[in-house]
Structure formats: C-alpha cells, structure tokens
C-alpha cells in the first residue's frame, strides 16, 4: 500500500519531469521555422494551454518515432474517462501523454474587494451566510491524455476541414475581424496600395483610431494583415504600460496571432510569417531570438482564442474529440482546458526585453 508520503513524492517527481520536459522542448524552438510549427500545432489544439500543447507535441512525436502511433501529428486528445464517455477505450500498453492539471481549493470572503479577507475552506467546511465562495488554483498535478489512435471502440465523427482556393480567404472572416476592430473603437480603412501607408501591408494609428490595410494583394494576405493589426489593438495599446516593450516583441506577438488565426481556418501564412518573425525577433537587443519568441506563447494563444471565440466562421477542430460531453463538475471557464484532465500553465522564465517607448504607429510589413 502506498503511503501519503510516497504518493506525494511520486507526484513531485512527475511534476519535476514535466517541467524538465517542457524546458527542453521550449529550448528546441531555436528558429522561426520551429516557432511557426509550434504555433500551427497549438492552433489545432487551442483548447489546451500553450505549454501543455508543447508537452503533447513532443510526447506524441516520441511515440510516433517508437512506432506506437501511426501518425506523426495527433488529431484528438482526451483523458481516459473522457474517451470512455465516447465509447472508446485506451488500448492496452498505450502510454498517455503527461500534462499539467490544476489543483483547486475553495476560498471564502465576506468582503470580496479586500484581497486579505479571503480564507481557504476545508474539504467539508461550509462558508458563512454572508460569505462569497470562489474556487482558485492552488497548485498543479500530473494528468494524462491519449490520442484517438491510442484508443479503440465506437467511431467519432470526422470534423470536415475548410477547403479554399489559392489566395482565397474563408467566408465571413474579413467581416468578423473588421467587426472586432470596430467594436474596439477603430475604423477599418482599405487603401489601394502600400505607398499610402508608408510601404507597409497594414498600419494601426492609435491617434486617429484607424486600422489601414492594403487591398492590392490576395484575400489571404489582407485578412492576415487585418488580424495582425487587430492583435496590435488588443495587445499593444500605448496607454497600457505592459505593452511598452521592444517593438520586435510586439511584432512577433502580432504576427504569431495572425498565424494562429490563419491555421485555425486552414490557411498557410508561414511563407510570410517565418521571415517576418525571424527578422523582428533578431532585432531585440541583448536577447536571443529564441528567448523572444518562446516568452510569448501563452499570451499569443489567449489573444488568438479570444478572437476565434468571437468569430462565427468555419474553423478546424481544436483537438477535443467531437461529441465529448462533461459532467457539471467538469465544466470549465471559456478559454481554459476541458475536463478534469484540464492542464494549467506552469511557471516558466519570462524574458524581460529591452523597453522602448511605443510610437503611435504599428505596421505590418515594415
């Protein structure tokens, strides 16, 4: 029989292994090409945190190389009991992919506005009549997910993939993005060529509250530019002190969001994104390009997810098996991982790039 101390030690060992695996995987993002591959993968597993996406990626890749799974890229992943909900069973001998999952606790307060008033409730402790109760994450634990190819049983519905002609943008994508820009108080202006906006593909002017996009390029390029500028509006308002970072970081973040939105719609924008990200990441003084791009992963994912959630366009699957239902106790807030196996974001070092004053303009293509 395993004692509490032995169980705790085993759990800590697994968490340490996860942190080491994550650190090694992040360090492997040494080029713009690697970063783009990671973002494209994350776009197809966007219901998972960025760090857990990387963990799934590297473990599935190892399973494929060992001949344990038939495909180099997973399609749908879920927990053991979640697969059972769908009438499928994990095959004997198939090892799950270890990820981070949250450990939560209940906290109560009679004055929620006062941070010091909150106190943690015991497992069966009831709150007082005048208290508000909220659940918060207090730690992390290891959990496991399996790819659909590691399971057998009832078939799951195949999610259709968008089919687009070369250079064609998905129906409704431009309108949906433009509506989000306008909802933030900016006017979308279409210009005939780059010469009207200083040689850029797009430009965000925080003074006039205008987002300009050139129209003498393909539809794909136009929507990619528009989402790039929308990312600037959402993430890099000059009034926000957190946005006052090196322009190279801002451009990497905005273009990474554009790539994720494109990938979620079946678009390939890597031909533009790779040199763009590589150029701007290299421009950050005293910081290695890999350090710049790896520090933005979860921030990019959350921004992209917020944009996608407000679109009614046809999007590729997000990594959660179609038809999966959850018990009420398993339901989670939008933008977080699903189910009891839902991972959380572990602490990783954050790069502190050179700070530079934010200018009025932020353009794509300059």
Automatic annotation (TrEMBL):
Residues 189-264 form the IrrE N-terminal-like domain. This is Uncharacterized protein. Residues 23-138 form the N-terminal domain. It comes from the Bacteria. Residues 319-345 are annotated as: Disordered. GO terms for molecular function: single-stranded DNA binding. InterPro entries: ArdC_N, IrrE_HExxH.
